[in-house]
Amino acid sequence: MSSPTDETTPDDPAPASLDAGERVAPTRSDPLVAAASRPLGGPVGDHAAVGRHWFWTPQRVGLALAALALMLCWFGKASCIQQYVDESGQAQLDWRSGRPYVAMCYSDVVPLYSAERLDQPGTFPYATSWVDNPGTPNAQTRYMEYPVLTGLFQWVNAKLTEGWSAVADAGWLPGGLPVAIYFDITAFWLAVAWLVTVWAVGRTARRRPWDACLAAISPLVLVHAFTNFDTVATAFAATGLLAWSRRRPAVAGLLLGLGAAAKLYPLFLLGPLLVLCIRAGKLREWATTAGVTAGTWLAVNLPIALTFNAGWQEFFRLNAQRGMDPDSVYNVLSYFTGWTGFDGTLQPGQTPTWLNVVTGVLFLVCCAGIAYVGLSAPVRPRLAQLGFLVVAAFLLTNKVWSPQYSLWLVPLAVLAIPRWRLLLGWMLLDALVWVPRMFYYLGTDHKGLPPDWFLGFVAVRDLAVLGLCVLVLREIYRPADDLVRRTGDDDPAGGVLDRARDVVTVRRRRARHAVA
Asked: How many domains does the chain have?
């Protein structure tokens, strides 16, 4: 360990190339954006009046692009809420002939409306139960399977659907199948959550506000914004980072706690914060954030846990008993090697103990390695860099990688490695995994794809994310290559960490032939 010194770090990045407060113009700095700007007049000129337009700020442009992308996403999913009239004259949801897979419009929101008993009046998540596979040896009592905030989010939307349908029956609003109304209401709030995510990314990026457009037009948003409920968690995580960047540790803890009550992943950001706060001697601020995060999570969860304990435990029970997901690296290895050592021979309802141990140990090993990186790098890494590494490590080592989980990486990737061409390439590749996935679920009996195609795409996606991690590590150890630091910034998302002196570091033994 090294002690604090009065000297600056010898490996500081190159001096600032921008004046204080000057924005980075992607049309000048990124070849892809410069080429895309040519139909609109080309890159911004040297004498352009930047920042003087009364309305079209980078923030509003990003939000407008996000609204356009979300609208396109809704149209893509709308095929799955079309209806038809059956022989008895009743309107039915048109999922005939494998429509969700052929049209690639599948969304968990639609089947969960009835599967979670949200379509039945008088039900409440975690209190309402049902039996799967009744009358069979695999019969099992089930409850709402999502964390508390996400479960309540679904329930509120179901109640709004009941109210909309009642008003529509009176002739005051357009009507439709309740499940279609429920999907539209849910999609509206999910869209608002992603707009909040884009807004928070743009505010956190400071001198690179245009980078928020990367999150706005991400191909992953076009495909997965309404696949599940994950934009709620991304909104809390992104605003939590924004609050931390504004030196509001308590507010950051509140938002991260709410995010953890919706999905688990915002909780992982406390790990990188701890490492960086140890290095900078800012443990008091970290303790405030961590304490408020824990308190917020408990405030949301305790009332449900104490009142409906069996239903509250369902999320944790299902995650423990869940086998390897088709999108996981374990399934890829098991399929191509034929090895069933990942508990692949277990029957439904049995806990894959060995798989759970492997995933947990691998993730902890990755976290330990990331902590070493955070303490040994020549310049303290940026918060977004370590946050991206931790979330990517979780996805790569976890037994479940549902396709919408990739949305978790988008805000962190934009803040960590704002290289437009590279990120758009990865996001497009990740989004394209949806195509073989849908045709894989269609089945070869219905002219679908064999598993080889789908799992091959998954392997390429995993390698792409791994490549991004390697790039982040390279820029951490070679900060002069970091596009954010090239502008003279230290850590725009760092808050109290921004330009703070190192207090605790780990000395690395330099390679014998290292270049100074």
From this structure: 1
